[in-house]
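Reopening closed ticket. The problem is back. First fold of the pair:
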Amino acid sequence: MKTNQIFAYQGRTPQLIWYYDLSDLKVIKRKPLTLEHLEDFFTRLSDRDDSALNWTLDMAARNAQADAEAKPFHDQTREKRQAAARWKERLRKSKMYKE
């Protein structure tokens, strides 16, 4: 059975998220999770340094990257809406003259 835990702090949005991976650890009924399994976790917890088992995700940088990747699509959407508005106006004017 795999378990994930997330620790959140109420009232503020985390800018840095620190992950620690214990997915390679096999925990079964006869071999339960012990404090010894978490020794490295507790050692690294205060500094939150990166290693093969843990890493930090910078949410501000990730959001900026996502915004940059989405910008061409937002620009294209704006251009298509402007073109549609121009066609709508032309259609409205052409109906006015026919009446």
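Second fold of the pair, where the issue appears:
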Amino acid sequence: MRITQWGEYGVHLSVFIAQQQTATSAPVPANDIARSQAIAADYAHQILQRLRKGGVIESVRGPLGGYRLTRPAEEITLYDILVAAEGQSFEIICDTKPINDLRCAPQGRCSLRDIWHDLKDHVDQFLKRETLRSLTDRTASDYAPIQIGGQLRSTAV
């Protein structure tokens, strides 16, 4: 399993939006979200669009527009965010890029196929137990500031 930068930033952007929604119900402007994580606005917009298409956040148009969560933070899981940002939680090479069409087929005789699927199921179950609320609670109280983009940022609102 490899969490890409899309997934990592997707989680951080979602946490920031959740924290801001706790402080105020107003949508969070995209530029504020990008600035909070010290990443380029264009890159943040791409990730925000993935999160929007994945149903994690929604956009609000207008001068006071921005982004907000589609559901309460306790109903959005880490799995939801990673799938929205990356398209999947865990890539199984047997399914996406088989090294041998016969051996990697679902009815094939590969001894690893079932193991990778079991591992994916375990990872997915773990990711589905971690909610955005649990992440914001941890970030706010238990952990030191995160470092993104070469700058130390406080995650507290």
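Update: turned out to be a display glitch only; the data is intact. DSSP finds seven helices and four strands in the chain. The chain has a mean pLDDT of 84. Please close again.
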